Every structure is written in C-alpha cells, then in structure tokens.
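Q: Can I see a sequence and its folded structure?
A: Here is a first one.
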Amino acid sequence: TLPLLVLGQRANSLRVELPDGQRRYVATGSVAAAQPLRRFQLPVAREIQTQPTAAAPLLAAWPVHTLVAVLGESAGYTLRLWRGPGLGLFPVKGRTDQAIGSFWGNERDNGARRHEGVDIFAPRGTPAVAATDGYITRTGESKLGGRVVWLADAQGQHLYYAHLDKQLVQPGQRVRAGDTLGLVGNTGNARTTAPHLHFGIYRAGRGAVDPWPFLHRADAVPTALTSPDRRGEWVRPRTASRQLPTTLPLLVLGQRANSLRVELPDGQRRYVATGSVAAAQPLRRFQLPVAREIQTQPTAAAPLLAAWPVHTPVAVLGESAGYTLLRGPAGQQGWVKI
C-alpha cells in the first residue's frame, strides 16, 4: 500500500521517492501503477497536504462529499485522488486548465519575487466568473494587479481575480458559482502581455496557495506530449536570477505545454518556462582525489547512494549549498560535499 513517486528512469530501473523523502532505485518490473485501493466520499471537509507530515504545505481544501480514490497509505496518512476540480467552476468562462500559460512559482522581476497564482489566457472581454459561491469583499485597482476583484467563500478561501478589463460586481455583493465578476483584460503590470486572468487563492493564516490542484481535472485525459519526455532529467537555468543561479541543478518532475515542474535541491517545487532552462551539461570533469560516498540529496542526513573509489572519473552537473551534483562513469548521479 506504500505509494512511490517516480522521479526518473533508466534502463530497467526507476528512481522513486518514498513518502518520507528517501530516494532509491527499484526494478521497473517490481512496481505497478497505483490503481485505487478503494473509493468513497469524504464524510467531512478536509485539508489536503503536499506530503504526509503535519508541517507540510496545504495543497487544497476539499469540501464534504468530495469523491476520492485512495492511492496509498504511509505513517497514518492516506494519498488520495479526487475527481474533478476542487472549485465548483473554472474561473474563466469556456476555458479549462489547458488555457493556463503561467504557473505558481514562476519567477517575476528577475527572481525578486515568485508568481503567487496562475495566468489563464483568453480573448479580451471573456467573462471571468465566480468559481464558487461567496461574496465580494473588495474591488479596486493597483499598479500590479490592475483592476481586481476579491471573492470570499464559505471555506475561508479568498479568490483573487486580477488584470480585469472591467469589474462588474461591488463589495458586499453575494454571488453564485458562474456569475460574471468581470471581463478578462491586461490591466496593471500585464499591459504589455496578451489578455489573461491572474487567478490566486489565499487562505487565512497560510497566505497564497497553488491554485493548480483546485483547477486541474484529475479525471481528464492528459494531453499527449509533442516534445521529448524530460521527466527525470537534470536541467539548469539559462540565465541567473536572485533565486536560481546558472549552476543550480533542477530535477524535472513533469511537463505540460510550455512549462516544466521542477524540484530544487532543497526540495522546493515550482514551475519554470521550458525555454528558461537547458539540459545540465557538465560544468567540468575531474577524477576523485579520494574515495567518496555519494548521497541522494545535498544534506548530511541524506541516504547513501553509492561509494566511488579514488580516481573515479566524474562530471559536475551542478552545485548547491556546498554540495556538488556528480555523474559517474556508469551514468549514476548523486551529491557529494566537496
């Protein structure tokens, strides 16, 4: 019943991550896709987390009676898949998650800040609609968001609609899912981009949360990839920013449209534009001057991956926090403190 997340593959092996964060290789034939163990409806509303720990970030809030499928269990936690979006409706009329062109975590202002929402592209004047029942707490105009609308729902979430061409509601107004709140535009700092809705979700005490899990249809047929599958590949930023130097290796976890979902060496995960990174070609090559133990992650407590003898030829793929990501002669990759 233990679910394993596939990070990469090579030959007849898969590189997987366990729920506790450990990583290892398993034979491809020793595992199978995580088909549902059982299905049921949530008896009460539940907050869903990114990992099976009390301190893990909030991923979504699912209302009572949400239909879920159990994919695995670990340390008293259950991994669940939900059917359909976590909100009642998609916030742009006539669009789906395929219209999302910029994701949570993408860098802004040369790395000075990160994108705290998603951008949903649609023609100017397309209705931006209430994704759930609630009431309007605020409307206004700002330098960044342009014309904005804030909607509060019964679950304590505050939905943020920005860059609107027009606002069609007033503070204090009660709305139902599907009511038009405004029209898609490119006001504020989006004036040089194509019209789109910046959509954000905020929760009291937690701040902004990633809207993607609330909007993505888990039961939809995935769009076929038209580019090579890069999952499990190490990449590096093409240009340096405050948060992502060009020597920082990023592990590709997934891809869609023009974005890659990557994991940073410290475990953070975010989306980056496909064109903003390149394959992690060796920065330099050398032979180990002494025998070294190679770890799965750049931390002292990370599990041992391998022990490489003195004079092993290695290639440096990236660096982070005093650790170096190395690739050995057989293609094995791991971290060492040099």
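Q: Show me another, different protein.
A: A second, unrelated one:
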Amino acid sequence: MGKFNKGVAAMKMKTALRTILVVTVVSIATVLSAIPVAAWPVATGP
C-alpha cells in the first residue's frame, strides 16, 4: 500500500509540474504575441 501511495504522489507531482509548464508556456506565448501589438504604435509614432 505504501508503494502505491508513493506512486500516486509522484503522479500528482508530475501532473502539477505539467500544469505549471503549460501555464508558463501559455503566459510566455501571450506576452510574446502582445509585445508587437504594444510596440507597433510606438514604432510607427503618432
């Protein structure tokens, strides 16, 4: 039973890490896609 619980904990940890990774990648992608939009008016000027 102890071995099984350890496996479940490891699985939960992997799932948590994967979730964090996905959130990080999505955040970076959002920021990278937002930078050109924010920089465009500055680059083109008034």
